[in-house]
Amino acid sequence: MHLNLAAQYLNTFMNNCYQLICAFLMMVCFGCAPNTEGNQTAPKSTTSPTEGIVDDYEDFGRATWQKPNLVISQFGDLTNKTIADIGAGTGFFSKRLSAKAARVIAIDIDERFIDILDSIRLSELPEEFQERLEPRIAKLDDPLLASYETDGVLIVNTFMYMSERTAYLEKVKNGIKPGGKLVIVDFKKRWTPIGPPAQIRLDMEEAISYIEEAGFKIARKDMDTLEYQYILVAERV
Q: Was domain 3-236 assigned CATH 2.50.20.10?
């Protein structure tokens, strides 16, 4: 009996420590690196501010479960369009968008990721795409988009971490042209092999309520296409 009780206390302590670490990471950056509730390798030690970050953020077979081309297709034809990728992180979506859109604003609140995005722009993108990608530092509560600057905004693995969601989306809306799209992808509120703890995730219907409060019209909600995540597509009216 005492051993079982001790095990329960230890499990609770470890879970609380894990949540505190996740909370700290949220404050550092919106971009969501896959976290673990199962067996995963420990984060790599680094000798520079950016060493290992790209691997940590894009590991775990992300291209398979995230289905980036399918997510990007929610915007339709991107010819001559400007898309903002909020919470761009290491550029997982931004560099793919750069092959399709005329201009991509890769937004993050962490200077480290801005440096990584600059490096990716010059080292990974074909020369004809390099000028399309614009890394941009923003504020925790403001994406710093100019009025009607974009044709669409993408927010992946990020919305759950925002505190003033309606107010933030109102600022996002101001940066989208009438008829433009907002695409939000986030983790389903249940346990999955990758992703943050289920208790900090945002239920899809709750996410929809914030989107509608900000003045968007829901065009599509999808709980089935992605195994671990839902997709929400909204229009700026």
A: no
In the chain, % of residues over pLDDT 90: 74
- Which letter, b or e, does each residue of 54-80 get, where b requires 16 or more Cβ atoms within 10 Å of its Cβ? beebbebebeebbbbeebbebbeebee
Structure-block tokens of residue 176: 């989208």
Read off the pLDDT of each residue in 132-148 and give the average, rounded to a whole number.
Answer: 98
Q: Considering the chain, what is the average pLDDT of its residues?
A: 83
Using a 10 angstrom Cβ sphere, with 0-12 exposed, 13-18 middle and 19 or more buried, the burial of residue 3 is exposed
Which residues are CB-neighbours of 48 under 8 A, at least 6 positions away?
none
Q: Is the pLDDT of residue 94 over 50?
A: yes
End-to-end CA distance of the chain: 61
